[in-house]
User: What shape does this take?
Amino acid sequence: TEQTTDQTTEQTTEQTTEQTTEQTTDQTTDQTAAIPLGKIEINQSMVRQGVAPMLNWSIDYPTGVVDVVDITPNDEIEPKTKLQVKISMIGVGITDQRGTRYEAKSYVQFGSSGWEHLFTGTGDQVQPDSVLIDRVVRPGDNLRFAAKVNLSGYDYYYNQSSNIKVLKNGDTPPSVAAGYDDQQSVANYLRPYVKDGKIALGPMDLIYVSELTHSDPQHSGYDMQDAIVLVQFDTVAE
Assistant: This one.
């Protein structure tokens, strides 16, 4: 029995370690910053002594999210060019003092179109790897975000509210602590997307974080983790 238990424990530990390593490697790979690429061209393959060849060089700098979208003071995202956008839920963290989980309901809007349902559910129903919206946007298709607690008596908060904020790579995550013992701070909740105290995203990614239960930043329940959304962009040929 002891040998069987030891073998099972070792196998489980190895499997867990391998899974954790794979997940961490995948996330690190996805979020590795792009690097500039350059090339040098020479007009002659061979030259005589005293003759200077002509050298030309160029550097292609990687495109970053601020190159392809503008973020307005109201945290509205304005595309500057034709882009592919993919939107996923990272998490929902609405609980009370007893640890009871509550649903968040989230919507997005593109330009003048109607509001499009993104996700409704509790934190344990979130699948961060699942892309919920995948579409092409163009200049004028400004992205807006709205969310609420999925209970009567709670209103929607929109991106122009201080309860909703856009974060990009290198930004500092909200420092507010979780309101209740059952919750984690927003930095821990975003652990795969935080490195050295800063948001660590792909160069073309943004995150929406939101507080849906309280409007007073001084309230103990104000934690900016109620609905967290990942927005990923990619360039598209015209």
Residues 1-33 have pLDDT under 50 and may be disordered. DSSP finds three helices and 15 strands in the chain.
